[in-house]
Specification:
The chain is an alpha/beta fold and 539 residues long. It folds into 2 domains: 8-284, Aldehyde Dehydrogenase, Chain A, domain 1, CATH 3.40.605.10; 289-479, Aldehyde Dehydrogenase, Chain A, domain 2, CATH 3.40.309.10. The chain contains 17 helices and 27 strands. The strands form 8 sheets. A 7-stranded mixed sheet has the order 17-20-21-14-13-23-24, sandwiched between helices. Helix 4 (115-126) crosses helix 5, helix 6 (190-201) crosses helix 16 (496-502) and helix 10 crosses helix 11. The model has no long low-confidence stretch (mean pLDDT 97).
Length: 539
């Protein structure tokens, strides 16, 4: 392990040419009202999780800097969004659906041109490996295409009139107002855009604040945002959330709050809004997803899915398997196979072929994980795998903790990192009680092949979590499936289809089914005198 850690971080000359850094990027631009404005105030230093060797020492790479906007500047972005929405009368919210789609398609074309730049920054800023960074970019582009197609389908169904009990009506979806969109650092492009794009395409105006890590990778897209949308429709700000976002929420001018992060942060921000009944929220929050291994099980499949589920992107996913309950009859065999599978995962830098374990972007994360390990060991757990818990700089080698008990912090806390707590159990009620009593309810995974047991557990857990995975790890995709959670894990539902509904409201135009009214409606449609009342069919 010492040799591995000694050789982990490279020297600058050993980095492949396509992924080498140029000079640090001093970013002072932010986007307000269709203009790239320059910030001449203080900047936040952006550090990479990657360290480089210089002689006998290793130093953390400074990638550049980003603006630390103040509250007043953030409020100018909000004012631009409010003006562009103009209480629902602005050009963007009243634009025909087909025309809004054209703007989003124009943005997508410009975005695709920046693939190399964004992928490179994903690796350097958050330590995501090359394959997953490319996948995140491509999946985001696919999500935009799927959103466009879903809106076309939705609009086609809304293009007809309905006649009920002598009332003629047309029901269409209308925007909600000004949206504040904030994404997480683990998927700073994909998770952010799964709220940002639906908010825009439904006719809302947006203030967008990038994630705290993964902030520079938005810079290559600023011109695309500026050139693809009317002024004020999309505004991009930077800075500390407690100063900028707090001011936005306290203004009472935010109509939709899209946030992915901790439930505590979301609660604190929502409390600042003076008109809470007017605030819609789409929130992806904490999770402590359990993997439950039953005594009758395909052990090879369970191990394969558990290793990937627990350690993909170093466990830094809300959908990661955060705790494993393994029946006593199979726990020894499970742990043996798990450790061998883990040992085969390649540590290294994000651009290295086949690398699976990379440095962690969050400052203080290694110390936090060390604290969880120390607490568990003090209360009777052991680190089973060779080298588990060893660290160097920002890199933490995964640790399998066993046996984990209820008095340990890692039993309850969402570690959001490469720690794998394993709880042995004899009585299945122990696992059921864990799920029922948990503050979180995003997903869980069941591994087993006894139909009676699986069927019973599905019924037990269906009202506890948003998704039950059978013989598969927890995950978000496919994006057409609902992504939600219960308890403190989420508010609202996201998917390609659901997100369009989250950021809009059904609005009805109705009239008595009488000759004069029929003629009036026909005249409006025939002469295209309304963007809302229309029977246009989008191809």
């Amino acid at each position: 392990m010492d040799r591995l850690l000694d050789s982990l971080f490279p020297s600058a000359e050993n980095i492949p040419e396509p992924w080498r850094l140029e000079a640090p990027l001093e970013q002072r631009d932010y986007l307000v009202n269709g203009e790239l404005r320059r910030w001449d105030g203080p900047l936040a230093t952006v550090r990479s999780p990657v360290w480089l060797k210089q002689g006998n020492e290793e130093h953390q790479v400074v990638l550049g800097s980003a603006p630390l906007l103040d509250a007043d500047t953030a409020l100018t972005a909000l004012d631009a969004a409010v003006q562009a929405y103009d209480k629902g009368r602005g050009a963007w919210p009243t634009l025909r659906v087909a025309e809004r789609i054209q703007h989003v398609e124009a943005f997508l074309a410009r975005m695709r041109e920046q693939r190399q730049a964004v992928v490179k920054l994903l690796m350097w800023e958050i330590g995501k490996n090359l394959r997953d960074s490319e996948k995140e970019f491509d999946r985001t582009c696919d999500y935009i295409v799927d959103t466009i197609n879903a809106l076309k389908d939705l609009d086609r169904r809304s293009s007809r009139f309905e006649l009920e009990q002598g009332t003629l009506g047309q029901i269409r979806r209308a925007p909600l107002g000004v949206a504040l969109c904030m994404g997480p650092y683990n998927y700073p492009l994909n998770e952010t855009f799964t709220t940002l794009i639906p908010a825009l395409i439904m006719g809302n105006t947006v203030v967008f604040k990038p994630a705290k890590f993964g902030v520079l990778l938005i810079r290559p897209l600023l011109e695309a945002f500026r050139d693809s949308f009317p002024p004020g429709v999309i505004n991009v700000i930077y800075g500390r959330g407690r100063e900028t976002v707090s001011a936005l929420m306290a203004s009472g001018k935010i109509d939709v709050f899209a946030f992915i992060g901790t439930h505590k942060a979301a609660s604190d921000l929502k409390k600042l809004h003076p008109r809470p009944h007017r605030l819609r929220a789409a929130l992806g929050l904490d999770a402590k997803n359990p993997g439950i291994v039953l005594p009758q099980v395909d052990l090879d499949n369970a191990v394969e899915e558990a290793v990937t589920g627990a350690l993909s992107f170093n466990g830094q996913r809300c959908t990661a398997l955060k705790i494993l309950f393994v029946h006593e009859d199979v726990v020894d065999a499970f742990l043996d196979k798990f450790q061998r599978k883990l040992a085969a995962l390649k540590p290294g830098m994000p651009w290295e072929p086949g690398v699976a374990l990379t440095p962690l972007p969050e400052p203080g994360k290694v110390d936090y994980l060390d604290g969880l390990v120390a607490d568990a060991k003090a209360k009777g757990a052991r680190v089973l795998n060779e080298g588990g818990g060893h660290s160097r700089g920002s890199f933490f080698y995964p640790a399998v903790l066993y046996p984990v008990k209820s008095d340990m912090r890692v039993y309850h806390e969402e570690q959001f990192g490469p720690l794998v707590p394993v709880v042995p159990y004899r009585d299945l009620q122990t696992v059921i009680d864990y799920v029922l009593d948990s503050d979180y309810g995003q997903q869980l995974s069941l591994f087993g092949n006894d139909p009676a047991t699986i069927g019973s557990l599905v019924d037990t857990f269906a009202n506890q979590v948003g998704r039950i995975n059978i013989n598969a790890q927890c995950q978000r995709g496919p994006d057409t499936y609902p992504f939600n959670g219960r308890k403190n894990s989420a508010e609202g539902t996201l998917s390609v289809h659901d997100a369009l509904r989250v950021f809009s409201i059904r609005t009805l135009v109705a009239t008595r089914f009488q000759a004069a009214n029929k003629e009036l409606i026909s005249e409006i449609i025939r002469n295209r005198q309304s963007s809302f009342l229309t029977t246009d069919y989008i191809f």
